[in-house]
Write a structure and sequence with these properties.
α1 links the parallel β2 and β3. With 325 residues, the protein is α/β, with parallel strands linked by helices. Helices cover 25% and strands 21% of the residues. The strands form four sheets. Strands 3-2-13-14-15-17 form a six-stranded parallel beta sheet. A six-stranded mixed beta sheet has the order 9-8-7-10-12-11. A three-stranded antiparallel beta sheet has the order 4-5-6, covered by helices on one side. It is built from ten helices and 17 strands.
Length: 325
C-alpha cells in the first residue's frame, strides 16, 4: 500500500493495472445535467478501451440519460452500463428502435416513501421511473433533470406500481432523507432539493461488484472515478478509486487518489494512469468464495464477503495521492 504524502504525480510515473473502470457521468465526465463530453475525456476513454480495459458508465441517470453519453464515449454493441443508482444494468445493442437491453433491474414499492414526502412537504414534485420510456410525475420537472417523456398522473396512479427509481423534489427536502429512507428504501440526496429513491440496500457499488463477478474480474483489477455522495461506496470498494477535484471532502476521503476538476479534465488524467492488468482469469486469491447457493449478485456493499471487507478497509487507510495530467 502506498503511503506517500499527497503530491502531484505524472501519469507515466505510476501505472495502475485494471481490467474494468466504472465512470460516474454528471460532475465527472460532464457538467450536471449537461450533454457534452470534452474532447480530452473522449480521447482518454478511447485509449483505455484500446488498451483492453472495460469502460462502464455507472450513474444516477436513467437509461435514456446514459445513451447520449455512451455514444460520445464510443461505447459499442455489447458494452454495459449501470443506471438509476444501481437499479438498472443494461447492455447496448445495435438496434435504433431499442438501443439497449435490460440485463437486470431491481424494483421497490414507492408508496411509503412518497406518502412521507408528501406529509413533510405537501407541494413536493414526485416522479416514478418507466425504464426506457420516461416518467410518471405529479407535476412537470425540468427536462434537463428527467430524461424521457413525462406523463402527469394522479398521486394514486403514481405509486400504484413497483418501480426501479423514484424522485422527490422540493426546497429543503433532502433534510428529510433519513425519515424517507426509514420507510424501506435507499434515499440518496443530490443537493438540498432532490432525493433519489431506490430499493433498500441498493447502490452503484453493489451493482458494480455484481458486474465484476459476472465477468470474473479480480477485485484488485477495478477502478472508478466519481464526484458525488452516491459514489462514496464505489470509490472505497474498488482497488483504485479516483475522486474528482471538485468533489465534497467526504467523497475525497473515500478515494485512493484525487484527480483534477471537471474543467481541468480530471477524469481524463485518471484514465491515463490505467493500464491493462495481466492477471490471469480465475485468480481470486484475495477474495473469499461465497457460500454455495448464496445470491452474491446485487448484495448490498455491507454484505460482501469478509475478506473483501478487509481489503476495502485497508484501501480507506491508504494515503491519498494527487493525479496530475
Amino acid at each position: 500500500m502506498n503511503h506517500a504524502q499527497p503530491e502531484p504525480r505524472k501519469p507515466a510515473a505510476s501505472r495502475r493495472p485494471v481490467k474494468i473502470v466504472f465512470l460516474d457521468i454528471d460532475g465527472t465526465l460532464l457538467p450536471d445535467g449537461g450533454d457534452h463530453v470534452s474532447e480530452p475525456t473522449r480521447r482518454a476513454v478511447a485509449a483505455a478501451i484500446g488498451r483492453g480495459i472495460r469502460v462502464v458508465p455507472c450513474t444516477g441517470r436513467s437509461t435514456l440519460g446514459v445513451l447520449p453519453t455512451a455514444e460520445q464515449l464510443g461505447l459499442g454493441t455489447g458494452s454495459m452500463f449501470i443506471a438509476s443508482n444501481g437499479a438498472v444494468t443494461a447492455e447496448l445493442t445495435s438496434k435504433r428502435s431499442r438501443p439497449f437491453q435490460v440485463v437486470r433491474q431491481w424494483l421497490f414499492d414507492p408508496w411509503p416513501a412518497l406518502t412521507v414526502a408528501m406529509a413533510v412537504e405537501p407541494q413536493v414534485a414526485m416522479a416514478v421511473e418507466r425504464v426506457g420510456v420516461g416518467w410518471r410525475v405529479n407535476k412537470p420537472f425540468p427536462a434537463s433533470r428527467l430524461r424521457g417523456l413525462q406523463h402527469i398522473v394522479d398521486e394514486r396512479v403514481l405509486w400504484s406500481q413497483h418501480t426501479t427509481r423514484a424522485v422527490v423534489h422540493a426546497p429543503g427536502i433532502a433534510a428529510y432523507a433519513p425519515q424517507i429512507e426509514g420507510t424501506g428504501c435507499t434515499a440518496t440526496p443530490h443537493g438540498s432539493n432532490w432525493i433519489d429513491l431506490t430499493k433498500p440496500g441498493l447502490s452503484k457499488a453493489s451493482e458494480a461488484d455484481a458486474l465484476r463477478r459476472r465477468w470474473g474480474i479480480h477485485p484488485d483489477d477495478t477502478a472508478a472515478i466519481g464526484d458525488g455522495i452516491n459514489d462514496r461506496a464505489l470509490l472505497a470498494q474498488v482497488r483504485h478509486g479516483f475522486a474528482m477535484g471538485g468533489a465534497p471532502q467526504v467523497v475525497k476521503d473515500a478515494a485512493n487518489y484525487i484527480t483534477g476538476t471537471l474543467d481541468h479534465h480530471g477524469a481524463a488524467a485518471a484514465l491515463d494512469t490505467l493500464t491493462l492488468s495481466t492477471r490471469q482469469p480465475g485468480s481470486q486469491a484475495s477474495e473469499s468464495t461465497p457460500t454455495e447457493g448464496m445470491p452474491t449478485e446485487g448484495m448490498p456493499a455491507e454484505s460482501t464477503p469478509a475478506v473483501t471487507r478487509v481489503v476495502v478497509a485497508g484501501m480507506r487507510a491508504a494515503a491519498t495521492e494527487t493525479v496530475a495530467r
